[in-house]
Amino acid sequence: MRILPAIVLFSLLVACTNQQSQSLGSAPSVTEYFNYGDSGVKTAGVKLIPITTPVGNFKVWTKRFGNNPRIKILLLHGGPAMGHEYMECFESFFPQEGFEFYEYDQLGSSYSDQPKDTSLWTIEHYVEEVEQVRKALGMDKDNFYILGNSWGGMLGMEYAFKYQDNLKGLVQNWG
Q1: Model confidence over 116-131: pLDDT tens digits?
Q2: 100 strand-pairing partners
Q3: Using CA atoms, how far apart are residues 37 and 158, in angstroms rounded to an integer?
Q4: In whole numbers, what is the pLDDT of the chain averaged over residues?
Q5: Residue among 71, 74, 55, 58 nearest 13 (CA)
Q6: Domains in the chain, please, with CATH?
Q7: Taking Cα atoms as reference points, which of 167, 174, 120, 175 lies closest to residue 141?
Q8: Which of 76, 87, 74 is nearest to 134 (CA)?
Q9: Predicted confidence band of residue 38 (pLDDT cuts 50, 70, 90)
Q10: Strand 56-65 and strand 46-53: pairing?
Q11: Higher-confidence position of 18 and 70
Q12: Cα angle at 71 between 66 and 77, to 5 degrees?
């Protein structure tokens, strides 16, 4: 599996970022890491995010792990239409590093809505979708990282070309 090089690169990126800015502080405690806020509803970190498109409104599936206002990683899966499932391996090692991260099914994938209108299947649409997801998850230029694999790596680069001011870092892997 070619995800390992992406993991190593991301760990180096975060380590360098942490060394450059001592004001970031240390990783959150275990109690802080698993505190998602008390909304009164137990969702296991799952949130359906509304997405506005030219052909209507839809919902995309996300699942949050951790709580770290300094490092929020959006995982972009391959495909398109492949789904987040193969990226669940990050659940095994990102928590011990204290990263807040999000598994995410792009529109037309796995647990997200499955529109039939093929006019949506453009790079431009997916770039705008990532921007809507970023906003809905409260990520900003000081904490927002993308880790993209295959199609997700290309999508991450396209996103960075258009919205570089909203992004702190990008790691892509063409696995």
Answers
A1: 999 999 999 999 999 9
A2: 72
A3: 32
A4: 84
A5: 71
A6: 3-18+43-173 (3.40.50.1820)
A7: 167
A8: 74
A9: low
A10: antiparallel
A11: 70
A12: 75
- In which band, very low, low, confident or very high, does the pLDDT at 16 lie, cut at 50, 70 and 90? very low
For 120-175, write each residue's pLDDT tens digit: 999 999 999 999 999 999 999 999 999 999 999 999 999 999 999 999 999 988 76
Measured between alpha carbons, how far is residue 35 from residues 67, 79, 111, 131, 133 in Å? Answer: 6, 32, 24, 25, 21
pLDDT tier at 1, thresholds 50, 70, 90? very low
| Integer angstrom CA distances of residue 167 from 23, 82, 156, 171, 175 | 19, 24, 10, 11, 23
Cα separations in angstroms, 164 against 53, 132, 142, 158: 22, 15, 12, 10
Q: Is-contact 47 116, C-beta < 8 A?
A: no
For the chain, give the percent of residues with pLDDT over 90.
65
Tell me which residue has tokens 């391996």.
89
Q: Model's pTM, two decimal places?
A: 0.80
Residue type, 133: V
Three state DSSP letters for 96-143: HHCCEEEEEECCCCCCCCCCCCHHHCCHHHHHHHHHHHHHHCCCCCCC
Residues with Cβ within 8 Å of residue 36, at least 6 apart in sequence: 45, 64, 67
Cβ neighbours of 126 (radius 10 Å) = 23
Judged by DSSP in three states, 169 sits in strand
